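User
Please review the sequence:
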Amino acid sequence: MQIPSKISFLIPNLLMIDDEQLVRDVESRLPSLPIAYWSKHKNVVQKKASCARYPSIFELEFNNIYWQTLRSSNGTFQLFGAYYDIRKRSRIGPAVRILGMIDRIEPRVKTFCQLWFDGQKEPFIVKTFEYKYIWFNKWGNYKQGIYQPYLIACQIPKPFRGLVPASVSLVEKQCDTATNNLRVLYNRPLDDEKRGFAVCVKGLDFLYDDLSVRLVEWIELLGMLGADKVFFYELQVHPNISKVLRYYEEQDRVHVTPLTLPGGQPNVPGFQHLFLSKKTTHKRQNELIPYNDCLYKNMYKYNFIALLDIDEVIMPSRPEDRTWHDLMERVVAKGMKLKNDTYPSYNVRNVYFFDRGDQHEHEWAKDTPRYMHMLQHVTRAKNYTKPNQYVKCFHNPERVLTLHNHFPIACLGGTCHSYPVSTDDAQLQHYRADCVRTLKKSCEEFKENQVRDTTIWKYKDELIQRTRHTLDVLGFFKPSSTGGGGGGSGSLLRGGKDSLYKR
């Protein structure tokens, strides 16, 4: 047998990147890490200092990838992000606000903020101004040892006002070498012009539920309503959901931030889902981190920020209001007549559009594909949930300090007054199989008294076209199909049990 003189092997090319490219890659994966600043100044700031020295990024204590740790003499801090706040209504003036969780209620330990400014060899150190609790004790879990959400304020000293700190560390003793160092985010548009509406979505926990087709319909509808961008946080999701999110990220219509739970909470797929489904109060407390991170990353970029779940839509009620911009022009003007000022938030009443799953109890709309979940569900509870219960808001980021799922918890300049939007102007359409657990007693009444509501159909033709196009591009239709299951360009590929979607 003749042995070839040369043998060719298929060996993948190794990707060679320089330090600068590596820094950019790490910064994109971990935006809270000031790796670019450290890389630029490491030969200067790590020299011996009279007090605190700048910590090497290799000395930082990370927790569950995205969190940085301070272990104090009375409690452990898990820090997620830091933000530069120069909003005019802030009574403490320019500040850095740090978002994180502390395993203490009413933490009493004294801490200090080491503020690092570009070009400074040593930090400027200030005492922590406050720990702002992003929770109410009546909601539960009000005991030591459970991680509680906080917003920590570091006041910028007068000599440095006008300068944005590059990073901040939280320490117990002023001159400690920190075990955490957070890049201070200041996402201000170059032209200082705000866009209209951002939507923030809490950590997605859909490892086993393939909601990809419903997600496409939802994102397309939000775009038609005027959402400039949707900001998702991702815990664990089905591969098809990832495919949808990547598609919209490439179009710059959504942004996805990976997320973990801090401390000893589980992050193993499956186990995390079980934990969140059984430990609902822990789940609610953890949700406040992505909500407030989304607020502070976008407070200079948008006029309004809405916190929505993917089964909710704020729907303008009047036929002439096609977009949220149309709606809010009317609503803000009404509010101004009452107090001659804008409100921190504008809340919209919740109403249920019940989903019976496979037991589809209403007639299918023949001119609408069956996979269009919202367009096919046009029967709702006659009555809305009570005012201020289960509402969702358009938040004014110039006025709110901390946010809860349903309303602001704290506001700048005083009490949080929320303007109630009339149901004649808008409603929160909530697509669920059942009421939330706390409404169990009144849920049967909601289900027994229902009315037909086709408000969403004013978007029908365009929404079908947009959704169909996206599903086609994503390859979610059977190639050989010509029928549309009620109007589509093809039948959706089926997945496992109870799924209409491709796996």
